[in-house]
Amino acid sequence: MRRAILATVTAVAALLGAQGPAEAGGLYDAIKARGVLNCGIHTGLPGFALPDSRGVWQGFDVDFCRGLAAALFNDPDKVRYTPLSSPTRFTALSSGEVDVLFRVSTETMLRDVGLGIRAITPNFYDGHGFMVRGNTNISKASELGGATICLLQGTTNEQVTAEYFRTNNLQFSPVLFARTDQATDALQAGRCDAFGTDASQLAAVRSSMQNPGEWKILDERFSKEPYGPYVRRGDDEWYDVVRWYVNAVIQAEESGVTRANVDEMKRTTTNPDTRRLLGVTPELGQALKLDPNWVVNIVKAVGNYGEIYERHMGPRSPVGLARGANELWTRGGLLYALPMR
User: Which sequence ranges form a coiled-coil region, renumbered to this chain (predicted)?
Assistant: First the structure.
């Protein structure tokens, strides 16, 4: 018994000892010393993360990885992308395979407190919906009783769908997939009557289908799905950098700072908040141990939040989504940067 207790105490002490350097800022220091950011992204979803014809990753989440690399290294290309499926994404993060997860991941309480990871702050607002063939008479989810529904394993959508049908005393048959492309193929092949996931992902999936006009996304939304980055627990400095990086991207739009005018604004602005943001007065960068021009470098690399959104998700993009809840708070949306002072 004593030997067993001693072995347990030794194991716990070893674990705590291994975690000690991270708590002291080890991860943040290691990333800077490594000179490249390891960023977890989707395995392939139009608008969020998808390789182009040259094999170069493009998308909303990809640009958030690139912007963070620009803040850290003044080089948006110093990123190593790791495509992760829904079931493996949090394990990859908690094990140290990636430094940060920018991967259409809803920030929830149980994920934040129970998986050894930390939710940062939302950078995209969405809600669960369903997509069906356009030639059906289905116009609302209550008409899907008895349907076979494609779902992604290990997502909040799997839970939301089950709870909706159970609450409304409806039967359905789930068909689970690890990847979005697998679910999309099954839907087009007729293995499922509907696909249940977040509305932005449904729009992204539809844009990549053989005949997008043959599919409709039902109007109802059944959940709150605030996407945002995750980091693993144990390094407050790294958490702070990622948190204030996301706020800076939003604040740049609030302040009217764009790729086209960032140099001019830095040179001429008299607004104290904008001067702090753009490093004219250096206290924000100093607080995060970053270059005073860290926000300038971000905006030059990827633009402000609105520019990122319009490029990959907006009405003129293949995904074709209006800003909606992802508009700035001053224009009726939910995006609100914390005060950067």
Answer: none
